[in-house]
Amino acid sequence: MSTATQADTPVPVPGVRGVPFVALARDPFGFCMKAAREGDGLVRLGAGPVRAYLVSHPDYVRHILVGNAANYVKGSIMDGIRLALGNGLFTSDGAFWRRQRRLMQPAFHSRQIQRMAETVRETVRDSMAGWAPAVTNGTPIDMLRESVRMNIRIILETLFGTAVDEERSVRLLDLTDRVFAGMTRRVWTFFVPSWLPTPGAAAYRRAIEALDQEIYALIAARRAALASGDAQADLLSILIQAEDSETGERMSDCQLRDEIFTIFIAGYESTATGVAWAWHLLCRNPEAATRLREEVDRVLSGRAPGYDDLTELTYTRRIVDETFRLYPAFPMYFRGSVEDDVVGPYAIPGGANIILSPYATHHDPRFWDDPEAFDPDRFAPDRHDSRAREAYYPFGKGQRLCIGEPMALTIAQLLIATIAQAYEVRTAPGVQVTGHYAMTYQPKHGLPVILTPR
């Protein structure tokens, strides 16, 4: 790996060529990736009073997320997202974040994930039953849309148990669609003067308020059920009853709302997008698809996969890891610097907006051999060395590593194994798949596939 060291005399970060504001308005993700390719893993994007820096060198990423993490907070660059997520784990900092992490940890214990695996099994079974007419007729299904539907059902049942009926589920999905779209439009508003109105701001707020009403109603109903002795094993019940081991405090309704929003929004498309991209890659790499089916057949012997099978489905896990390398669900993270700092040879001023890009790092030939190739075996134990681990961070690094990582990986692995067990999958004729940045990185027009029963 190319190694970056701290400089005795820091130098200014080089800027990009062209007019960054125009390019960002047209294609923010494409502009950032072009800047990353042209830079040394750290490049200045802004001009005038706006100071923004794109970071993709693994050494610089580690410095920001691990080595000097206290200096890089979820600052004003997150304001557009914070409007929806409030002060949840994704947006909070410092002592409050540490408290929330302690309170949230039991909800993501392996026992909870094991229980969730049963929900995954039921969800895939029901979805596949609904696919039967299309499978019989050879009609394409959109693997992205179906993956999102399955993922939403899994999240809803894991969060709320039996409290969400079909009508409410549809309503929550519609509201989440609107909130997620609003968040996407506001990601780059840190480049826009605060006095300038942004398109869709009023609709974004209305969608948040409507989703608020739904979430607060679910919290109130669950508090009442728990007070009457109706114990539940869903995440909402666990969060309501969680006590801080240091202070004995519990979460307020407002804080519960923020954490539920965070889990729901963060998990809304991320895992589903990964599953869709995995099938796109497998359709383009039939040898890998054959190896996947062979492993699934050998390990499962015809039964549905469960949580205890995951450790044996090693090639399936490599497919998941390689998919998140090529297509990390969240291809960019955001931070704000508190004080002046030195990152490698470069001077970073306090008050700067920081964009960290796992997508850029994961595609950088300085750190990956043949980075555009789909090669699950690069995650085999004899190849996935410290060099690769430093350059791989689809779920972040350090203490801010995503608390939902084990849940996301479990869902993705189970969905892929279950579908591979039942079907051979090929891309529908004439389909051209291109990527599209919308907070997550997803197939722009979905992923139409043809399923053939095995």
From TrEMBL:
CDD domains from the UniProt entry: CYP132-like
InterPro entries: Cyt_P450 (IPR001128), Cyt_P450_CS (IPR017972), Cyt_P450_E_grp-I (IPR002401), Cyt_P450_sf (IPR036396), Cytochrome_P450_Monoox (IPR050196)
Lineage: Bacteria, Bacillati, Actinomycetota, Actinomycetes, Streptosporangiales
Keyword rRNA-binding: no
Protein name: Cytochrome P450
UniProt entry keywords in alphabetical sequence: Heme, Iron, Metal-binding, Monooxygenase, Oxidoreductase
Listed Pfam families: p450
Entry's family note: Belongs to the cytochrome P450 family.
